[in-house]
């Protein structure tokens, strides 16, 4: 079982101080958070990709390459790589380069993002979002597995006997997760290729994501990659921790109430009841996270969103200390003990290189 954190890289005003970090400060804070994640024993750090304020991570491979040089164990990933508006050739080459620099500690998550205007900024039409995702990934999949590719499609110029460089490390492409909040077509795509499926699992009730994950599992088995319960599933989640739950609620409430995404909507209590958000003690986080397996079956990766809504860096680092010391060891032990022997672990470069995934 892999545990980690994912970030969207938002620059948000801290309601306690009325101040927002600069882009420089936010970028440096994300790096510090990644280093802390490895320090406290987490497995994964994943960054989003955005090309508009108030977000800063427009170049994930640049950031992850820098983090790779300062870590030794952390798996470096994305929580969205925009398969719709990035050129598949550039994705193939950028992530293969990162793979070499990080000694294989790389995977990535394909997604369409949540910012409509990004499509025309990169010369695409949002109405073609799903076809773009399907066609672009088909090309990317080939570029990593075939040394010479000739290809033509609808959305980019043809390729004639093209070789992307560098080639994937050890001839093994980075493992790919397909992330989706609402699209069954993406669950189908993940199943077709035998890739992982990551359910964001933040803003919506569990029933919504259960339908997507069940579809993915069914189609994974249909395409002959294994039994449905052997499909590779990842989940998101949100937590805010303090040793005492009342302290957590009191401290987090102003951040929740003023957050650009969910502030000024449902109350904190309503939101925590209806979604995976947990605000409380380490034991409360453990208890709620363990219910995810009951809802979705055995899964391979759990990522938490912890550095959003204007939370200061100091607070986020304190959160990671609590997570690493009091939460993850218990979750890892419990979930690993419950996972049947035939259900694989999350793929890594080492396991894929050796042909072993369990």
TrEMBL record:
InterPro entries xref list: Bact_Lucif_Oxidored (IPR050766), LLM_FMN-dep_put (IPR023934), Luciferase-like_dom (IPR011251), Luciferase-like_sf (IPR036661)
Protein name, per record: 5,10-methylene tetrahydromethanopterin reductase
Domain Luciferase-like residues, every copy: 1-295
Coiled coil residues, start to end: none
The entry's keywords: Monooxygenase, Oxidoreductase
Molecular functions per Gene Ontology: monooxygenase activity; oxidoreductase activity, acting on paired donors, with incorporation or reduction of molecular oxygen
Domain of life: Bacteria
Record field: transmembrane: none
GO CC entries: cytosol
One matching Pfam family: Bac_luciferase
Organism the protein comes from: Amycolatopsis coloradensis
Keyword Cytoplasm: no
């Amino acid at each position: 079982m892999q545990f980690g954190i994912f970030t969207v890289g938002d620059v948000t005003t801290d309601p306690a101080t009325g101040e927002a970090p600069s882009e420089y400060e936010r970028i440096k804070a994300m790096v510090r958070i990644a280093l802390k994640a490895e320090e406290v024993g987490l497995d994964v750090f994943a960054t989003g990709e955005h090309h508009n304020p108030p977000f800063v991570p427009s170049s994930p491979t640049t950031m992850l390459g820098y983090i790779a040089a300062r870590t030794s164990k952390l798996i470096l990933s994305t929580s969205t790589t925009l398969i719709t508006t990035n050129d598949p050739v550039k994705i193939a080459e950028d992530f293969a380069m990162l793979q070499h620099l990080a000694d294989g500690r790389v995977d990535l998550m394909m997604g369409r993002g949540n910012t409509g205007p990004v499509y025309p900024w990169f010369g695409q039409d949002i109405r073609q979002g799903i076809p773009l995702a399907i066609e672009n990934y088909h090309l990317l999949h080939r570029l990593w597995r075939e040394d010479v590719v000739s290809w033509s499609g609808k959305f980019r110029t043809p390729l004639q006997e093209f070789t992307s460089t560098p080639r994937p490390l050890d001839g093994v492409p980075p493992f790919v997760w397909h992330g989706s909040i609402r699209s069954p077509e993406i669950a189908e795509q993940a199943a077709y290729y035998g890739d992982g499926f990551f359910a964001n699992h933040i803003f919506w009730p569990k029933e919504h994501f259960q339908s997507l994950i069940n579809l993915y599992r069914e189609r994974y088995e249909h395409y002959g990659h294994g039994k449905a319960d052997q499909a590779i599933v990842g989940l998101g989640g949100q937590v805010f921790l303090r040793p005492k739950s009342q302290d957590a609620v009191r401290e987090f409430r102003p951040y929740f109430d003023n957050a650009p995404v969910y502030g000024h909507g449902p109350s904190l209590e309503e939101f925590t009841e209806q979604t995976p958000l947990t605000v409380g003690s380490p034991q409360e986080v453990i208890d709620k996270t363990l219910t995810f397996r009951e809802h979705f079956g055995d899964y391979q990766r759990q990522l938490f969103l912890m550095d959003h809504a204007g939370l200061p860096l100091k607070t986020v680092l304190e959160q990671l200390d609590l997570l690493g010391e009091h939460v993850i060891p218990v979750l890892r032990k419990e979930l690993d003990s419950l996972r049947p022997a035939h259900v694989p672990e999350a793929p890594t470069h080492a396991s894929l290189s050796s042909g072993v995934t369990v």
